[in-house]
Amino acid sequence: TSNANEVLKCYCAARQLPRVEYFTCKASCSDGYTALDDCVNEKLAEGWYPLQSQRQQQVYNDCFWQPLWRWAE
User: What are the CB-based long-range contacts (under 8 Å, 24+) for 4-9?
Assistant: First the structure.
């Protein structure tokens, strides 16, 4: 039936979509960019990509953070 075909198409599309995972490197205000850069460089070596430019804003004890992404395995 037409409805069954639509369900099958939807299932196949959902199974084929690439999967992405996210990680955020964080550093406290006192640690500064050095700690953030260490985390980011480690993740870049593991195949992660920056999601956007580095952020700086006081949120609890985190002043610096960098969101990252990669294709999930």
Answer: none
